[in-house]
Amino acid sequence: MLLVNPQLRGFQNLMISLCEIERAASMLKGRIIRTPVVYSPTFSKITGFEVYLKLENLQITGSFKIRGATFKILGELDRIGKEGVVAASAGNHAQGVALAAGRAGLAATIVMPVWASISKQEATRAYGGKVILEGQNLGDALEKALELAKEGRAFIHPFDDPAIIAGQATIGLEIMEDLPDADLIVVPVGGGGLIAGIGVAAHSVRPDVRIVGVQAQNCPSALEALQSGQRTRVEAAPSIADGISVKQIGSLPFEIIRKEVDRIVLVGEDRIAEAVIMLLERKKVLAEGAGAVGAAALLGEKIEARAGAKVVLVVSGGNIDISLLDRVIRKGLSWNGRIMRFSILLDDEPGALAGLLIVIAHAGANVLQIYHNRGGADMPVRQSRVELEIETRNFAHIREIAMALGNAGHVIGPSGRGLRPVGP
């Protein structure tokens, strides 16, 4: 845990002042949505805390990024030339810059990696951005954006910029206005601009409020930096929380985080998927992986606070691709026992499949998918393999179904089509 002297917090932070954050809030008024802070009975009951959600997924463009981009562009409008602005991003920052620039009457060029999702490319174009696809990673896209900046375009950094951080910091002011006695604010961490800004703003109002950052376990750049005392570039594995998969934290955010943030915790992919499902199912909140990591940290018991503490989760965005959402839902349902996948060998004779389905129905499960394979080289001539995916209530229900199938003489095995065998 990183311990911080409260006297070094908030308005005494010389890099981002409360005055600048308040100026950002004034400039953004009427230009963005003042997103709500809502109480969550579900997460409160599970954790024993009083849990609230700051819903930046409801923000214009579906993410908090419009705040910093708007403040940066409007604040420097007199210094931006006719070539407009340029940014590098695979998603939320791209859309925020494109919209903010378009509203200011400026051209916006957005460099995206070639693998950027089509939906995010099209959304960026819809907000008025000119999209250039360049490189296999964000580093390549960034190099191209910096080249274009030399031609007269103003470069808009996604997190390592005082104006960007001040814009994102307005979230912290709103949280403290809506919930002035908040004990703990949980914030997703990628490049660090969001949590740096929220930390300064929140501590300017209430120095003893705790700020906890959450990163995907597959890309722990902020945690590694805090532990080593210097910015560290990490190797990142693919993550559902791609919006915070930043391999090296920004230099300015790093200096602020060292003073303003109490702790950084990590969450795994299964927890993130579970959190996306729970937010969607229980609260009707659609969060992208990066936006759900705070909820994942709560579910994984990574957040330490007294019973009844007021905890605010920043749901930073909701821009998740439909195809990814489908995979996340299936992964999340499987992880928490809501889906059972298995195969069974049946005698290839009339009524055998019907008998199997009767056992499943009597056990209270619903068949989602079924595949009847008669042609496997490893199967006896008079048998076929039935691969099933069924909807279940929990792991206890899965065990009941397995017992019922066993009592009926069926031997459960793994599926040949990538379906997971029974059990957690």
Would you summarize the structure shown here?
This protein has helices at residues 18-28, 41-47, 65-75, 92-103, 118-126, 138-149, 162-178, 193-205, 221-228, 251-260, 269-283, 293-299, 322-335, 352-362, 395-407, and strands at 37-39, 50-55, 85-88, 108-112, 129-133, 154-155, 184-188, 210-216, 263-267, 310-315, 339-347, 366-373, 383-391, 412-413. The chain is α/β, with parallel strands linked by helices.
CATH class of the largest domain: Alpha Beta
Structural class: alpha/beta
* Uncertain parts: 1-14, 416-424
Return the CATH topology of the largest domain: Rossmann fold
| Strand elements, count | 14
The name of the CATH architecture of the largest domain is 3-Layer(aba) Sandwich
Give me the strand/helix succession: HEHEHEHEHEHEHEHEHHEHHEHEHEEHE
What share of the residues lie within helices?
40-55%
Largest sheet: 6 strands, mixed
Q: What is the beta-strand fraction? A: 15-25%
Q: Give the strand line-up of the largest sheet.
A: 1-2-10-7-8-9
Query: How far apart are the termini?
Result: 31 Å
